[in-house]
Every structure is written in structure tokens, then in C-alpha cells.
Write the C-alpha cells for this entry.
Amino acid sequence: MRCRRCHTKLDPAKKMCPNCGTLVRKKRGNVKIASTAGVGPMWLTEIVDRINRIPPKILIGAVATIFLVLILILFGNCSACSGCSSCSSCSSCNSCGSCSSCGESASGNAKPADENIAVKKLNTGGIICADNENLYYVKGSSIMKSGKNGETVLMQSDAGAIKLIDTDGINLYYMQNGSLWRMPFGNTTVQGSAPVARCVVRAINETDVISGYVSVSGYGVVDSEKLCCWGTATDGTIKICTVDASGASLTEVIRGDFSHLEYYNGRVYYYNNPTGKLACVDLGSGKTKEFAINYDSAGYALGGGYIYFCETATDGAKTLCRMKISSEKKTEWFTDDPYIVGITANDLSVCFWTKLPEGSDLYRYGHDGKGERFVSSARPISLDCMAGEYLLLHDDTQLKLYRGSGEYIQTIG
């Protein structure tokens, strides 16, 4: 008796061909007996018959491979961003850390609370800001909007210099004369001083005193309903508060000897001057955390779920490092560069600039560490702020607006 497929001589006692795995069919009178008998239609019978012909080792390997692919599809991608189909650099989920491609664990768990970014951090503080569609910037005594329909004036004011503008997509916020103001989009252009109704937090030396503040020096947009702000308290410390968008409710979170404050993702970060360490306070719980990051004159920057900072050796050489906020895992980026003088970041990229005897250089990287770009041939002195892909460079006595990898837009100050 031979195999009907490969013609190998068969042992009548065996059920399968030892060479190709084909099922041995035995005749009992005029009736064929096969494992496919009685399973349904003829096409299904043929499929099952062909599967039965596959050698067991090959069949087991194929099933295991299919099972592994299903596991990777279900759990291998970033669970925190269901729309992410290819997380090669985690650009679509802000390096959330739950993808194997990110270099972190692919556990399938949701993002840690401190990395649930409702609105991406696009703006780093200054006189430009951006949302998904428009760029806003201060030019002279006006706030301008640049978008699809060209450049328009949102507000003109003679009440003093405007600074630190930001947006939640519904309102535009700005600082003026030590007070924090809110301007809803859709309003007509305002001439003259902003109306009192738009003041969110006013300095103590003006009407509508907010008790305990001498002045407001900075703020962060949590969402369209909630802000945070900080400034000098009457006892000389820095006081951090939360406030609703209308300014009706101000709640103190913490105060102390702080400097270099910045809001990011539900927390306010600062240098704790008595210890010389970088720390933060959670605006919801009021709990504080101190990081193993020492004060450095180049400062620190927040973006993409990371803290960027410099470590300075005794010989003056600087190492640009970053720390994953959720795990506090530190990695080194660039070493032995004594000329780094500043760092800034948002959720799109990180920039650092150097000051050399012959001028300054500015570099821009994605959070994956790729794409080194020399942004400006004008050898900028410093980077004033970032808004989305826009950069405001301080070049000698001028403020020049650039986009992307170095496209000059205009001079705005």
C-alpha cells in the first residue's frame, strides 16, 4: 500500500503518511472512510481534507504564528491611543510608554495619570501661541491672528505691554500689568483697555483685589474650565493657585521659595530653591514630588512626557539629559558640550541652543531623538518661545518668527 500523494510505501497500521502527512484512506467494502465524512458541504469537506494533509509540525507552527500575530495586534500597539496603527516613533501618542517601539513596556495598560494629555502642549510661554489651526502673536500693542484667512487684529490695547499669551481653543489668555485676562474667540475687535469682566486674576494693587497676591507672574491653561496661576504673595513667597476660567473661584495649592515655574499636564513644576532640586505639585491632590534633577543655569523643559535638563560636570562640560516623567528613568542625549545655555520643548519637539564665541546655534529634535536640524542661519542669540511648529528667535535686537526647520516668516518686534 502506497500513499496516494507521494507514493511512499505505507504501514497499514499507520493513519498518516510519515513523509507528507496525508491521511491514509482505507476501503471497507464500497464505502470510503475519511476524517472529513459528515462535516458538511463538499467545499468544506475539501478544506478540512487539505488541512489534514499538512504535516503536524507545520500545522502547529502555523497556528502558533497566527496566535502570536493576534496578540501583537491586540496588545502590541499603544493602548492609550486606539487610532495609532503604527507607533514606530510614538509621534501619534506623545511617547506614551506603552508601546514596545517606544523602548518601554508593552503591557497594554493605560497611560499614567500624569501623561493623559487632553490638549497637547503646543505653547511654551511668550508672545506667540498656536492651536490646531491658527497662530496668535503680539505685535506692538495688538494681539494678531494668522490663519487660513490671512492676518487679522484680535485686540488692540493701550493698557500696557501684553505678554504670555496662550489658548485653550475657546479662549485666548494673556498677561498685562500683573493681571491675567481671558478673551473668548468670536468677539469683535476690542479697542482700548480690556473690559473688567475678562479679568481672571487681578493684581492686589488694583480694584477687585485677590487677597494675598502682590502680582501675578505666570499661569497655565488646564482646560477651558480651569486655569492655574502663580505670583508673589504678601509674605514674599511664591503662591500657586487654581482658578476657574471666569476668575470667580481662586484656591491656593501651595506656596514656598520657588523659581522657574511652568505648568504641564496637571502639575506645576519649579525649582525648589532651598534644596536646589526640580520639584512639582499636583494641582488636584496638592501632593509634591522632588526629582533627582539639580538646578542648572540652562533651565529645564517639558514636552512629550519628558523633562529635559542639563547636568554640568566640574570642568564645565554639560550633558543634555531627559527623564521620563512617569518612570523617572533618566537617559543622556548629548554630552560634553559646555556651551548649552537654554532648552525649551513642547509636545512636538525639543530645542536647545548654544552660545559660542562666534555666535549661537539652535538645534531642534523630535522626542525620538531623530531629525537634528539647524533651525536658523541667522545665528540666533536665544529662543524666546515655541508655538506648535513656530519658533520665535531673539536675534540681536529683533524678534524673528520662523516655522519648521528654518522658514523665515516675519519680524514681529
In short: DSSP finds two helices and 30 strands in the chain. Confidence is low (pLDDT under 50) at residues 27-40, 77-118, 204-210. The radius of gyration is 31 Å.
